[in-house]
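Hi there, hope your week has been kind to you so far. Thanks so much in advance, here it is:
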Amino acid sequence: MKNSATSKNDISLIAGSGYFAYESAMFLKKINRLNKIYLINENKNIDNRFTNIVIKSNIRNIEQLINSIKKEKFKNVLIVGYVSLPPFSEIKLSFLSKLYLKKNLYSKSINDQSLILKNFLVNKKINLISQKKIFKDFLLQKNDQIHNKNHKKLISNIELNKKKIERIFNLDICQSIIMSGNRILSYEDIDGTDHMIERIGKKNKDFNDLIFVKSKKKNQIDEIDFPILGINTIKLLRKYNFKALCSFHQKTIISKKQLFLEQISKSNLSLVVL
């Protein structure tokens, strides 16, 4: 992957938990853009591999973290990984920052919280890097499709339902759904993707047409909350006899992409990219 940037070591990574945060650190190092890592959730992979540039922090001390970044030569920040947002009252902020956030804390939706965080960082003169742009080669593309020859009718049905599926993600209510035929069996909730797959998989063991769909929502911001798929999702889908995994062109980041596609090729799953 080529790096179009002219500056070296110009990105500070704010990393939460999860393997993709570690994968992101490795990628930034490979393209010579990794400056420091501000670790705000436990991540043993990062801890063990990047000891010399890891600064352990906490989302409760976000203003202190921002002030540290602002002392760096470059103010570019990439946020990757799971971060549990604490109650507003537990975040240590200056009077002006509290005033700014109180004016913006009008929504309880996760997407709006991400937008509030983005606006807060931009207000502090931090340049947030788009996950979609920096990880463009990790995006699921139309030509990544893998169609199982036994799933022709099921794949045709998915394609016929494209507009219906699009409308769901345009409602901004979830990143994932599970379908059976034309029916929506479940929408992802705060418990996450894995929990939904296990819950529906256990309840519907006899279904032979389960389809898992993941995609970016219409107003989901690219800098903080871009949807990610990984190997563990494939394992769960195979465990519960799902027939297809579906997404939209460039609307999902794939962790360990080459291995991900290889695993689907070896499985009974079809990968449908709309």
In short: Residues 19 and 45 are 8 Å apart (CA to CA). Residues 110-123 form the longest helix (14 residues).
